[in-house]
Amino acid sequence: MSWLTLDSLTKRFDQVTALDGVDLAIEAGEFFTILGPTNAGKTTLLHSVAGLHRPDKGRIHLAGREVTKLEPRARGVSLLFQNNALFPDRNGFDNIAFPLKAGNHSGQEIERRVQEVAAKVNVRHLLDRPPRTYSGGEQQRVAIARALAAPSDLLMLDEPLTNLDARLRIELRIEFKALHHDLGQTFLYVTHDQVEAISLSDRIAVLDAGKLQQIGAPQQIYDRPENRFVARFIGMPPMNLLPVRLVGEGSTQRLEGKGFQAPINGIEALAAYPAIPAGLELGIRPERIRVGREATSEHGIAAEVVLVEPLGGRTILDLSLAGSEVKAVVPARELYAEGEAVFIGFDAEPELLLDPTSDRFLR
Amino acid sequence: MSDAKLELLDLKKSFDAVEAVKGVSMTVHKGEFLSLLGPSGCGKSTTLSMIAGLEEATSGDIRVDGQSVVKVPAQRRRIGLVFQDYAVFSKLSVRSNLAFGLEAQGFPRTERRQRVAEMAERLQLDRILDQSAGRLNMSEMQRVALARVLVTEPQLLLLDEPMSNLDAALRFALRTELKRIQRSLGQTVLYVTHDQLEAISMSDRIAVMRLGELQQIASPEEIFTRPVNRFVAEFIGDPPINLLDCEVRRDGARAAVQTALHGPLDLGPLEIAEGRHLLGLRPHTLSLTREPGPGSAATEVAVVENLGAEHVAHVTYGDRLVAVTLPPGSVAEGERLHLSLDPAQVHLIESGSERVVAHSLSGVAA
After folding, report:
1. How far is CA A45 from CA A21, A200, A237, in A?
2. Closest Cα of chain A to B87: distance in Å?
3. Could you tell me the CA-to-CA distances from B337 to B291, B293, B341, B363 in Å, in that order?
4. Which end of chain A, N or C, is surrounded by fewer C-beta atoms within 10 Å?
5. How far apart are the first and last CA of chain A?
């Protein structure tokens, strides 16, 4: 059995179904992320595991025992909130010791435990200083030390980077990865930010409207989304989805869209699919679109640059392909002007053909 | 200058003993999208508040179309303000939201109707004019927030971190839309943000602020490729710029710079003291190869960070790590490779002053 399992977990608030039959199995030591937009049910899921509310249906097992109906403090989980809520004027030791003081621990035990977690999280040098003297990264580490002070089987983090400055967010993102590595603890991390999810996680569960959309390793979720929601929610810019028709027979089958024709890579794979509708959408990640000024075999489809959006090292081009909008990402050194005529090319893969009636990719 | 829409002249603001804005001078041109970018507490929101008339300047001047407005009360400045999360009135219809500012300014009913109808059409809100604003999606919400201000035909549109509390994916979509609207209307915009990506992707020019002082004002490309100092170099870019310790040596009139693994690189007759300085290298300008090349250094991949569209390899460099951006799947952790830098894309940062004194080195071995 996995370290943490959720078994058809359902939670309603009045008329709203916040979680709708969610099944999850998380392994010990994993960095597991729940990713989704606002109101997807992410925080409800976390609070159900923490025991802050009871699910209407379903069961939760953690570290080999059922915890569905246990009180929060009996579950052996710790939760780090959005605002780290450290006491700014008490020193690091008192902040970390805070959750222990509520229990029946002797002064000696508290001393030993604080020193132990402080060493683990590498903040022993901060024990004598108050949080207002810490850097952003140091505050985060002390907050985590406090969350871990009472022994815990699972550390849950609820959008810990959301309220921070963009610059600090980037720094702390890397910090979380290092922390997970150092601690070897199971992390359940919640975020709406796909970059955080992709860069930190061993696996990601994408959640929308209380329902699981896909579970997988970051690259798998990115390269092989299972449905329209995942394709559009992940990626900046999101995956292009161009309406196409499947034309021709057998090995000469190809895709025809507005203003272009495209062969299909590994077309044999199509034979394995059950019924394929004629009207499909082709998914293409913007950085997989080849752009050039001359028509070549690599890029031979005429398009026009509508808007240029620089990102620093890379640039987003909003292109018009026979009137449809397509976004491409090119290295910043390739300079294009708005209004310029260009040629584009891309590969079509069977796994990135979306059936618009089910909104699922062909599998 | 004739096309100046907004001019700030040595603008200062003190709160008791704290100087929040320490003499900012800049010009925003007609039709320009200018972002005021900086971390919390850099003075960007205070600057915006003074322009809007919500705060009184301690000293200095603010001119709109060449006329000083520091003595003009906020409601008569003809400056449109859009706040965080757009603050649309959710209980009112889209139409009432759009008419609100016009009513407050006493426009007659027929003109109100006409202006609302025109703006609704331009921002594609005409079909939802009678919907309640509480039921809009975020794209519609952004357009209502903009339309509500734009119907009053402001001289200048100020946006104060409108997207900062929104989901990352949504922010991305709204960014493109905002840029398109601004472009199609030719509206002058001053946009305040702490998010370098928002600033880089939307602005014609960016003004970077720190501790109440303007650091640099230039196009996104210039800010990214020619930062004036260490702060700007570090604040812009994700993943952040690598800053390596380096050593400058002089030989007669010529200087050369060396890092733990690279160089010496010729600095020519550059005026810089001998000794330790910093070399800034953007992750996307570095390259990793399986075979050694001229001037390359042996390294090992310690960690690969996945960002979806690209990966960031953190590779060993002396006793530290250096970030290199790469297409997904190009290297694996533990792999031994060779790291090359592009001498045309390095920034030499002088210790002490923290100014960038060179943006490109000739690359000739000294």
Report:
1. 11, 19, 28
2. 17
3. 7, 11, 13, 21
4. N
5. 28
Q: For the complex shown, is ipTM > 0.95?
A: no
The pLDDT tens digits of the residues spanning A117-138 come to 898 888 999 999 999 888 877 8
Q: Give the contacts of B56 (CB within 8 A, at least 6 positions apart).
A: B50, B70
Q: How is the beta sheet containing A314-321 ordered, strand by strand?
A: A290-292, A341-345, A301-310, A314-321, A324-331
* pTM, full prediction: 0.86
Pairing of strands A16-26, A187-191: unpaired
Kindly determine whether residue B169 and residue A233, on different chains, have CB atoms separated by under 8 Å.
yes
| Contact A308/B at CB under 8 A | no
Cβ–Cβ < 8 Å for A42, A34: yes
Is B201–A287 a contact, with Cβ atoms under 8 angstroms apart? no
DSSP per position, A200-237: H-SEEEEEETTEEEEEE-HHHHHHS-SBHHHHHHSTTT
Question: Cα(A138)–Cα(A224) distance, rounded to whole angstroms?
Answer: 37
For B70-90, write each residue's pLDDT tens digit. 999 998 899 999 987 787 898
* pLDDT confidence tier of residue B303, bands split at 50, 70 and 90: confident
If DSSP codes are grouped into helix, strand and coil, which group holds residue A166? helix
Decide if A34 touches B, using CB distance below 8 A: no
In angstroms, what separates the C-alpha of B304 from chain A's closest C-alpha?
A: 9
The residues near B39 (Cβ < 8 Å, ≥ 6 apart) are A165, A167, A168, B194, B210, B235
Contact A166/B176, CB-based, under 8 Å? no
Does A33 touch chain B if contact means CB atoms closer than 8 Å?
no
d(CA B248, CA B242): 18
Is the CB of residue B226 less than 8 Å away from at least one CB of chain A? no
Strands A77-80 and A65-66: what pairing?
unpaired
Chain position carrying tokens 């009636």 = A357
Residue among B169, B170, B200 minimizing CB distance to A312: B200
Q: Which residue of A has its CA nearest to B39?
A: A165
Interface test with B, best of A171, A232, A236, A284 (most B CBs within 10 A): A236
